[in-house]
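From the methods appendix. Each design record in this collection lists the tokenized structure first, followed by the designed amino acid sequence. Records were kept in a plain field format so they could be parsed without special tools. The example shown here is representative of the layout used throughout.

RECORD:
FOLD TOKENS (236 positions):
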């Protein structure tokens, strides 16, 4: 009888551990809130996340943060690479209580915010990219992971975001994002938030792209109508 109870306790402990581990493994994807006029957007993949808040009508950027994270089923701990509110709060590490199931994640912020998982969409250019250099690629010096000055592009499930920042000083230079498509060499961004100028929201920008190994060659015209050639290197 004692042996049976011991086995039952072991089984229960294993079950509890498996539940905890399952809760800790947040599914890769994009999660969006449905609150009126204010949107929380979470991109999470391969141990990295970005969390951005912006208003939709009228368009207004609020804040963004991101970095490498760990989750234990109760809290997400983020070692921040960037934090647009750093001058206000001085945060380099953040812990957010959360709960998770297959379709949504709830953050316990000033109030509980639930974000629903967006339908997955696989496209060319999905992933995390760091700006490397201006093209064409003629052997010039490239920015890499070791450089504290970074510009990151995070593309996932039809949503994109770029962020310019400095990891040593936590200086935040800007961000923008929205929806994107990438197919047959044509990359299109539809801007839904832009920290430097809310009036840019609603613009649609079209570029050409070519993948060469772990590099994304990004060409076309910039917002001023000038020729542009950038090379981005795959991070994850």
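DESIGN:
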């Amino acid at each position: 009888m004692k042996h049976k109870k011991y086995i039952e306790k072991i089984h229960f402990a294993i079950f509890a551990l498996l539940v905890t581990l399952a809760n800790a493994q947040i599914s890769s994807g994009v999660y969006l809130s449905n609150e009126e006029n204010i949107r929380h957007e979470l991109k999470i993949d391969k141990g990295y996340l970005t969390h951005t808040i912006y208003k939709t009508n009228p368009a207004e950027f609020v804040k963004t943060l991101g970095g490498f994270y760990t989750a234990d089923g109760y809290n997400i701990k983020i070692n921040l690479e960037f934090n647009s509110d750093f001058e206000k709060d001085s945060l380099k590490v953040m812990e957010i209580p959360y709960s998770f199931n297959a379709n949504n994640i709830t953050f316990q912020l000033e109030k509980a915010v639930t974000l629903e998982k967006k339908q997955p969409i696989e496209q060319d250019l999905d992933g995390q990219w760091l700006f490397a250099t201006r093209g064409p690629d003629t052997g010039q010096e490239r920015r890499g992971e070791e450089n504290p000055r970074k510009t990151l592009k995070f593309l996932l499930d039809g949503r994109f975001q770029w962020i310019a920042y400095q990891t040593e000083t936590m200086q935040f230079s800007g961000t923008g994002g929205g929806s994107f498509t990438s197919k047959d060499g044509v990359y299109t961004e539809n801007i839904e938030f832009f920290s430097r100028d809310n009036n840019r929201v609603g613009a649609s920008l079209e570029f050409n792209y070519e993948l060469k190994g772990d590099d994304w060659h990004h060409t076309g015209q910039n917002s001023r109508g000038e020729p542009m050639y950038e090379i981005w290197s795959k991070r994850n």
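APPENDIX NOTE: The first strand starts at residue 29 and ends at 33.
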